[in-house]
Every structure is written in C-alpha cells, then in structure tokens.
Write a structure and sequence with these properties.
The complex is a heterotrimer of chains A (442), B (279) and C (387).
Chain A lengths: L17 H14 L7 E4 L6 H6 L3 E4 H10 L4 H9 L8 H16 L16 E6 L5 H10 L7 E5 L12 H26 L5 H23 L10 H7 L1 H5 L4 H20 L9 E7 L8 H8 L2 E6 L8 H4 L7 H14 L2 H6 L5 H12 L4 E7 L3 H4 L2 H11 L5 E6 L9 H22 L1
Parallel strand pairs in A: 1-2, 1-3, 3-4, 5-6, 5-7, 7-8
Chain B lengths: L2 E7 L3 E7 L3 E8 L8 H11 L7 E7 L11 E2 L2 H12 L5 E5 L4 E7 L2 E7 L8 H11 L6 H5 L13 H13 L4 H20 L8 E4 L6 H11 L12 H19 L19
Parallel strand pairs in B: 1-4, 4-5, 6-9
Antiparallel strand pairs in B: 1-2, 2-3, 6-7, 7-8
Helix pairs in contact in B: 2-8, 3-5, 3-6, 6-7
Chain C lengths: L8 H10 L3 H8 L4 E4 L6 H6 L3 E4 L21 H11 L8 E5 L3 H4 L2 H8 L3 E5 L7 H22 L5 H23 L10 H11 L4 H17 L11 E5 L7 H7 L4 E6 L4 H4 L9 H12 L13 H18 L4 E7 L3 H4 L2 H10 L4 E6 L6 H15 L1
The chains are: A alpha/beta (442), B alpha/beta (279), C alpha/beta (387).
Chain lengths: 442, 279, 387
C-alpha cells in the first residue's frame, strides 16, 4: 500500500547496475550545459538515437523521468500541476507528469525541490515523432512548448506499412523506407541548425554499426532465458531494457549486455532459476508495467510463476532475421531496420488465417520459450500500447490455443486507481487456471 | 416591503431563504427520496417562520440541481452564480469559493459578487460528499462525526486510491491490519481534499478562500482543505444556505433593475404546489 | 429518397439526421456500393470518383455501449467506442466496406479490432502522416495512389484523373454552398439556429455529393425566405470547438438558455467546409495538400513558424477569424475524455481564443448524454458569467 514502498529486488546482479544508467542519463542532461552540449527532449524507439549520439546531443528522456517519479511514488504533485492548467487526468500520464514538472521548473527557474535524482534539465530542443503507435510523441512536445516557448520543436514522421491481411507489404516497404529516410534527413538538418555543427557521417555509420551489434547481443542474451528454469524474469527485463532503450549507440550499452550474458550463462551452468521450483512459464504479452508496482513480478515469482519472455521493450531483433538490403547510407539503414522490425512478422501472420503480426509474435515467443499462459497489462492512461490488447488476446485464443490469459489493469504512473489486494487476487485466480490448464494438457 | 425568496434544491438538501432588506427566514429540509416532491413544504415552513403568505413574495429564484423543477419559481439561475452572490453578502473579503456538495464539488472565483471563473468535478464521486458518505457507511461511523474523529488521528494514514470502490476496499483491508479508524478517516479526508484542491487549483486561487455546502460542516475536511491551500479557510455561519441566499438576492437585484426603469419582471404565475421533481 | 424541394430543405435535413444512413441504405438496395469512413481525414473526393457512396460514420449519444466493450477497451476514445458499438449492433449493416484514416491512436490501435470484428468485403487503412513537410506531401500522394488502386480493384472500375478532377469540383462546390449557408449565421439573430445547422451538417455527410449540395441549397433558400424570428439582441453568440460532435444535445443545451450557437470549429462542421482542394495537374497533389496542410486538425503537427506566437497563428488563426467574422462572445471547447490529440491542446486553445476576445468554457465529457444535466449547468453558469 501507499506508504510502505516495496523495493524491487532484481534477480540478476547485472541488473543492479541499472539505476546507475538511469541516473547517469538524468545527470547527463544537467551537466550538458557546462560541457557545451545541447540537450534534446526525446522519445525512445523512434529511430533518432544514433543521430543524437553521433552529434553529441544529450537526450532527455521524458518517459524515463516519469517512470522514475512513478517508481518513487512521487508523481502526484506533477500530475496535479499539469491538471491545474486543464490537462485532463485521462491523458498520457508519462506526458502530464513530465509537463507538470516542466511547468514547475519554468516557474521556479530551476528544478523543483525534491525532484527525483535532481530532475531533468531544460532542453535546447524537443524532438517528437509521428508514428503508428503514439500520439503523445508529437502532442507532448507541442504542449510543452506552451510553457517553454523559446525551445524549438521538431517532429519527424516514421511509419511502417500497416498490417493488411489482404495486401502485400513487400510492395510498399520501399515507399515507407524512402519516406522514413527523408524524414531522418530532416531530423539531421534540424539538429545541425540547433547545434551549429555538421553531421559527421562516418561517426554516424560507426554508431549505427554499434547499435546493430547491440541488437544482436541483446537477442543472444535474452534467448538464454529459453532455458528451464529461466535465469531471468520480465521483472528484471523491465530494468535491463534501459541500455538498449535509452543508451542505444553507446559502448556502455553494449558492454552491459556482455556482462548480463555472462551472468545468465553462469546461472544456467549452476542451474539457478528465478523461481525454485519453476512451476509455470508465462509470457508478458503486451503492455507497459505499473512502475509503482514492479513488486507484482516478485509476487508471481513467489508462487512459482516466471516470465522468460516479454514483448514489451524487446525493441530489437537479430539483424540477420530482418534481411536488410545493403546500403552505405546509415539513415537508409536505420529506416530499413525500423520498417523490417515491424514487418518481419507479417509473412508468418499471412500463413495463419485470422492471425495478426502482433499475435504471431506472441505465438513465436510462446513456442520458443515454452510458455503455459499469457499476461497482458492494460494501463488506462496510455492508448498507444494498450488499446487493442483485448483483440490480441481474443485472436491468440482463436487462432492458436485456448491458453490461460490474464489482463491486468493499472496505469504506468497514476497510482490512484491501483489496488494491490485486488491485483493479487486476480493473479491467484490466474495461477489456478494455469494449474488446471496444465493438468488438462497432461 | 418587498420579499424575495431563493430556493436551492440540492441533491440531498433543499434550502429556502427569504430576504427583504435582511434575511427574514432560512430553512433547510432534506431533498431525500421521500421528500423529493415536497420542495413546497420547505417553502411553506419558511413562509411560516417569516409570518408571510406566498402572495407576499415579490420574486422567486430557484437554483441548484433541481432548479428546473420548481414551478412556482419565476426564474432559474445556476448555483454557481448564486453561490458567488450569496457569499459576497456573507463574507465580502472572499475571492475563491470551494463548494463541496453531496454529488459534486466546485470552485468559483468571484469579484464583487460576480463569477469570474469556475470549475466543476466530473461525474466521478471522488472529491465529493458522496465519497465521505460511502466511507463513513462502510466504517459504521455516523457521517456527522467523521470530521471530528479524523481530528484525533495520530497520523494521516495515506490512501492511494481515489476511486471510491477501490478506496473502500483499501480502507477495509487497512482496518483489518489494525490501523485506527481516526487515522484512516484522516487519510480519507486528506484524499478528498487532495482531489478537491486539484480541481480548484485550475482557477487562479486568490485569498480569502471560503468553503460552503455540506462539506463545510465537516471540520476534518475544512482542516484538510486548509492544509492543501496553506491557509485557514473561512466558513460562513450557515454554509448550506449560501446558494439559496444568493438566489434570493439575485431575485432582488433583478426586480430592482426592472423597477429602476419603472417596469416589473414577468412572473411564473404558478401557485405554491408540489414540485414535480421527476417529471 | 427524401424529396428535396423548395421549402422543405430543413424538413429533409431533419429526417436524414434522425434516420441517419437511410439514404445510403436506399442506394445500397439499388446496387450502389457504400463505404463508411471515420473522421475529417476521409478523402471523399476519391470515393466519389470511384462511384461509391462515402458515408461518414457517427454513433448515437443517447445509446449506451452494450456490445462493443466485449471487443474494445474502455480507454479508447468514447466516440470511437460508440460508433464501433453501433456497427457491431448492425446499425451500419448496409456497408460494403470501410476506410480508416490514420487520425489518432484510438483509430490506429483499434483498426484490427474493427476489421476482424466487422469482417466487411472491403477494408482500407489510410496511413495519413502526422507531419506536413514536403516529404510527407510526397508520401501522402503515394498513400492516396495506393487507396485509389485498392478501390479500383474492389469496384473493378478504373478511377481516372478526370473522374477525380470532376469529384474535386463537385466537393468544392458543395463546400462553397455550405459556407454560403454558414454566412447566414453572421446576422444578429442568426437566420439559422445552431440546432438546425447541426442537422444539416450531419445530413450532408450521409449523402452523395450532388444530393448533399441540393440539400444545402434548399435549406439556404428556405432559411433566407422565412420570416426571421424576433431575436434577443443581447443574447450571447457562442462558438463550439471540438472534434466529432454530431448530435444536437449539447447545442440544445446552449440554445435553450437563449444563447445562439453561431459558429463552430468542429470536424463535422466548418473544418469540413472551409478549405477547398486546389485544382492541380495531378489531382492527388491538391487532395494531399488539403487534407495534410489546409485541414487544421490536432493530429497533424504544425510548427514551421519561427516563433511560438507564429505557430499558434498557424494552428488556431482561423478561430480568431471566426470570433471576428461571426461576432463570437464566448466559446465552448468540448473535448471527449481519453482524447490525447485534443486534450494536449486545451491550454493553448483556451489562452489563444481568450486572447482573441472570447472567454472559453472547457468541458471534458463522454460521447453520451448521460451527464448532460451536469454539462448544462456548466454551460448556463458560463453564460451567466459572461452576461
């Protein structure tokens, strides 16, 4: 309950270094000015990471900051600040938490007292992205500009071919790649204008190369979790995603997964699993977690339920599986990687009538990681990842197998509608269905 | 002498105020299920108290959420406008009004008795008297006692849920772990005050701040609200009648405005009879 | 079909409004293909050129969602949920297909839910960009070309550039006629009420373009000829701002207090009619430019001006013009719950329109009349406040 904030014990010791990454990213924004670097308010998974890294632009990750506020159960005052200027409580709480913080910082001329880990610096620019997945990625910077009127906003647009069971995405992939590439060029132009520096294209190419290597290493590492008992759980993955998600294109990110991989290999050798005994394996099939209730993963683990795999924050794939056309243009490479990351499940979905790529991805993981059931999380303030979950769950049951499914309800930041006792009750009931299902299957 | 009546039909209480150059009668009766159709009874009582007959009334204004169902009223004006008017006559220094009613809460910015801006809560019960009512009920504490009891708390037991259903469950489970009722009530009052403050802070809040409505009778809530605004809040002597008083005064204003031009405002022509609350 | 003659335009609009989709049902029975679409982003010119009837889908604010919630989350836009519920219940059983323009997450994220649940013969997700720079115009043209091809494949008929150009001319003419009708709201009192205007706007989006134009012309003629009601010169003139408001309930709440609704910035109202498609050698160029650059909707990011004030003018300048041209005394910003695109604009719109001289009442509500009494109190209090 509210006052006794539960710490989230991580199963892997490598994951214990994650707070350092998160803190480092926040303090990098605060130190940027004295280091003569520009700060960009930015969004994860929108293809701009390498451009920022190659131009020494320090990303200020609003989503991360709001997640930290939520995990510390310290978001309410920022949510209320935003609400005081008529931002509805039903809007994306990552955004409203961050906007509330920005409003206070503008009024005070400095980060408000007691801001988690010193808060985040005022950006020199805001980079948004129009995607097929999240309206706040361009509405949030635009709304923030109302309070930081001198900070320029640039919104790029990166799409991928929408899923059409009767269409052929191969015919339109190139069109989408061309558009994404052009939009990335526009991003570079904007960043050059703000920083007053020209893009070092060789450096960008090397950064992209490092990202590709990190993608591969990330997947190699995570695939070790196929082992029974699994050496790492989604509860940990909500931490170990940080280097890939927030530090892509840096050596530190790559090195982190080298350590994590070594640790998981050792655990497998020693026969150490997350749960002992491991009774049920479940996929985290969609949804961002309730950052204020990560302890729920331990609740699952304590009952012998483990999550060897999750869709959330697995924002990469083995490069070879994407079959990317050769190119010397790093932006074109980013564009292809982005488009294929989404479309490479389309062919599989076509082969199974009634299926969709999202469901196909879940099926692939269920089979590869030998899962007995699926858990989805529906966060009320976030439509981008959480609308359409019911459809995925229903389709999964229809086209694949009638496996036990739990749809949990909560939010990413706003604790006010969360109820721990109720959540645990539902988890208990889900575990009973897992047991019944497994017994029936024999 | 001209007499003006204000009738405020709220979700739980019906209030009637009759004024001339001063308040000559004020009466409060329940709107509650069995009395819903009997707004006229409260009016009759008020007339009796003022030793007047219905025909002595010059002009009648109805307000509150049942305002459209008072056939004998000459005019309907929202409770927001009436609260501002009533409060100005009671506590002229007030610039911000927080009205905590049974079904809704509102914030009103006023200047010289006129509404400058206002906010109202959405249909969720959190931040209204209804929320406190449900909690009092599930704790088995009389509603009129919860405020006083909350003041005896050793600490404010934080309540994370603002959803009524969840909060109720949370309170019950906390009670089971041995948290004293007073602490829980302090927590609930704090949670309600937090929601109301979040609503009212959408206005550019300026002191003095007053609390009206049924919530103003709850000392625990007034104190919790005060802590959210960092100052003591004013409460009129009878916080429930502010709207009805404002309505009566609005009627007086309207009548005098016409009179200044040698005219008379049109009347409803209805007799004092049962208000058909549900048509 | 509904007979549109001189003198009965308003009656025809009323009927088409009350029995929404009745004309589409008739045309379907006579063999015409009917394609439903959501939002102001539906490129009606192309559908008209394809020989199908485009009908903009609406829900019913008086009807509770009873079936849709089994398939779609309650965090989705209440408007989208309500229309989906209506479709699941068979209200649109005359549809041959649907076009889902990529406007917002609530549409984009539920596209598969719609497609797989309704299972119509034709389905197209039109992937409109969120930005309006030059690469985006080029991309939009390609996206429209793909749409043209898919319609050709479905109908079996070639859609020529000439046919598109003809449809563009017909829809531009339709828009002009509607603007002429809007002009009749400028007088005090306005010649046509807000409630009547809403019925005409809703009726118009359910008809083939020629019939829509005939309806608007008939209404205009009728309104001009009728004896104007004795108005109250002191009554407040209100503008309504929002996305898809397609029912008279809120407008009745405004006008029953004696105020006049004289203008709107709604996706069912002026947004549909204020901007024409330019005639361009490649007709898709003009269409792309209209839907991406001219149509000011919160899901298309605009921000090329060098200053914040300049950006506000780009985004909301048209509303400042409306306040002036239609002598607006106050504005009501009516936003649906869970709407990120509009929700994030509220502080900016509110302060901009207030600076333009019209106080703004911001209301957040469901797409439902269940809380109408509450909404009404706020509207009345607002009107008392600005009186």
């Amino acid at each position: 309950m509210a006052e006794e904030k539960k710490g989230r014990a991580v199963a892997t010791s490598t994951a214990a270094s994650i707070p350092k990454f998160v803190r480092g990213n926040l303090s990098a924004t605060l130190k940027a000015k004295e280091e003569g670097k520009k700060v960009a308010a930015a969004f994860i998974a929108d293809g701009q990471d390498e451009i920022m890294r190659a131009m020494d632009i320090v990303p200020a990750w609003g989503e991360s900051f709001s997640g930290v506020c939520a995990a510390k159960r310290d978001a309410e005052k920022y949510l209320q600040k935003a609400e005081s200027d008529n931002f509805s409580r039903s809007l994306c709480t990552y955004a409203t938490c961050n906007i509330g913080f920005d409003m206070m910082r503008e009024e005070l001329g400095q980060a408000p007292e007691g801001a988690p880990w010193g808060g985040m610096a005022r950006p020199d620019m805001m980079l948004g992205n129009g995607q097929l997945l999240c309206d706040p990625r361009f509405k949030w910077p635009q709304a923030t500009q109302h309070y930081q009127q001198d900070v320029p906003v640039f919104v790029t647009n990166m799409y991928y071919p929408p899923w059409d069971p009767n269409g052929d995405h191969h015919e339109v992939e190139e069109l989408y790649v061309k558009y994404a590439k052009e939009e990335l060029h526009e991003t570079v132009k904007f960043c050059e204008k703000i920083t007053g520096k020209k893009m070092d294209w060789d450096r960008l190419a090397k950064t992209v190369e490092l990202s590709d290597k990190t993608w591969d290493l990330f997947i190699d590492t995570y695939e070790l979790r196929k082992h029974i008992p699994t050496p790492m759980d989604t509860g940990d993955a909500m931490n170990t995603m940080v280097p890939l998600t927030f530090n892509l294109g840096t050596q530190e990110a790559y090195d982190f997964y080298v350590s994590l991989k070594a640790e998981l290999e050792q655990k497998i050798k020693d026969g150490i699993g997350v749960a002992d005994p491991e009774k049920f394996r479940v996929i985290w099939a969609a949804g961002l977690p309730s950052w204020f209730a990560l302890g729920d993963f331990q609740y699952f683990n304590s009952k012998g339920v483990v999550f060897p795999v999750e869709v959330t924050y697995r924002g990469c794939e083995k490069i070879e599986r994407l079959d990317l056309p050769k190119t010397n243009d790093p932006l074109e490479h980013i564009a292809w990687r982005w488009v294929r990351y989404w479309t490479h499940w389309y062919d599989a979905a076509k082969k199974r009538p009634g299926s969709t790529p999202k469901v196909e991805r879940i099926i692939e993981y269920i089979e590869d990681y030998k899962c007995d059931g699926a858990v989805f999380h529906s966060a009320f303030s976030c439509r981008s990842w959480h609308a359409g979950i019911m459809q995925q769950a229903a389709t999964l049951k229809k086209v694949y197998e009638d496996i036990p499914i739990l749809i949990m309800e909560g939010d990413i930041v706003d604790i006010s509608s969360y109820n721990e006792a109720d959540t645990h009750n539902r988890i208990d009931a889900f575990i009973e269905t897992l047991a019944a299902h497994k017994a029936r299957k024999g | 002498m001209d007499y003006f009546a204000g009738v405020d039909i709220g979700s739980t209480m019906t209030k009637v105020v009759i004024v001339s150059d001063k308040i000559v009668a004020s009466l409060i009766g329940p709107t509650g299920p069995e009395h819903r159709k009997l707004a006229n009874r409260v009016m009759e009582e008020a007339l009796k108290e003022a030793r007047l007959s219905f025909d002595d009334l010059t002009y009648i204004v109805a307000t509150g959420y049942g305002r459209i169902n008072v056939p004998f009223a000459d005019r309907q004006i929202t409770e927001i406008t009436c609260h501002a008017k009533g409060l100005q006559s009671l506590l002229p220094s007030v610039k911000t009004v927080i009205d905590v009613g049974g079904q809704d809460s509102k914030g009103i910015k006023i200047l010289n008795g006129k509404v400058m801006n206002f906010v109202m809560n959405d249909k969720c019960a959190a931040g209204t008297g209804r929320f406190l009512e449900i909690i009092a009920d599930s704790l088995g504490v009389p509603l009129d006692k919860i405020g006083e009891i909350s003041l005896t708390a050793e600490r404010i037991a934080p309540v994370s849920s603002t959803c009524t259903v969840f909060a109720e469950a949370e309170i019950i489970s906390r009670l089971a772990t041995g948290e004293p009722i007073a602490n829980l009530l302090a927590g609930i009052h704090d949670a309600v005050a937090t929601r109301i403050a979040a609503l009212v802070k959408k206005l550019n809040v300026e002191p003095d701040i007053a609390v009206t409505g049924g919530g103003a009778k709850n000392v625990g809530l007034v104190k919790a609200l005060g802590s959210k605004f960092g100052r003591e809040l004013l409460v009129p002597p009878e916080p429930l009648i502010t709207g009805a008083l404002g309505a009566a005064l609005m009627g007086k204003d309207i009548y005098e405005k016409y009179a200044a031009e040698g005219l008379k405002p049109s009347r409803s022509g209805h007799k004092l009879e049962e208000a058909t609350f549900f048509k | 079909m509904t007979d549109i003659r001189d003198g009965n335009g308003l009656a025809a609009a009323e009927k088409l409004y009350t029995q929404y989709g009745s004309r589409a049902r008739e045309l379907k029975a006579s063999g015409k293909k009917v394609i439903g679409y959501l939002s102001a982003l539906g490129p009606i010119e192309i559908m008209t050129a394809a020989g199908v009837l485009p009908i903009r889908l609406k829900g019913n604010v008086s009807e509770a969602i009873s079936k849709g919630d089994a398939y779609m989350e309650t965090i989705v836009c209440p408007f989208v949920r309500n229309v989906f519920d209506a479709a699941v219940k068979g209200k649109y059983d005359f549809l041959d297909g649907m076009v889902m323009p990529h406007q917002c997450d609530s549409i984009d994220r539920t596209n598969e839910t719609w497609n797989y649940t309704l299972n119509l013969p034709y389905w197209h997700f039109l992937n409109m960009p969120h930005v309006a720079d030059d690469p985006s115009i080029a991309f939009t043209k390609e996206i429209l070309r793909i749409f043209v091809k898919s319609l050709e494949k479905y109908t079996g008929n070639k859609i020529t550039d000439e046919a598109i150009a003809k449809a563009v001319a017909a829809h531009n003419q339709n828009r002009k006629l509607m603007r002429d009708l809007y002009d009749l709201r400028k007088s005090n009192p306005p010649l046509i009420s807000g409630v009547e205007m809403m019925k005409v706007c809703v009726a118009a989006m359910s008809l083939p373009v020629e019939e829509s134009s005939a309806l608007i012309e008939a209404v205009t003629k009728e309104v001009k000829e009728r004896t104007p009601a004795a108005g109250n010169p002191k009554a407040k003139r209100i503008m309504l701002i929002g996305d898809q408001i397609d029912d008279v309930a809120v407008i009745e709440a405004i006008e029953s207090t004696g105020a006049y609704l004289v203008m709107d910035d709604l996706s069912t109202g002026s947004k549909m009619y204020w901007q024409d498609v330019d005639v361009t050698p490649d007709p898709l160029q003009g269409i792309a430019e209209r839907y991406l650059r001219k149509l000011k909707i919160p899901t298309t990011f605009i921000g090329s001006a060098p200053t914040y004030q300049g950006i506000l003018e780009e985004r909301f300048g048209h509303m400042k013009n409306y306040v002036k041209e239609f002598k607006v005394d106050g504005a009501i910003l009516f936003i649906y719950k869970y709407c990120d695109p509009y929700g994030f604009e509220v502080p900016a719109i509110k302060s901009y329109v207030e600076a333009a001289g019209a106080p703004v009442l911001y209301l957040e509500d469901e797409y439902s009349t269940s809380s109408l009494a509450r909404v009404k109190t706020r509207i009345e209090a607002f009107l008392e406040m600005i009186a």
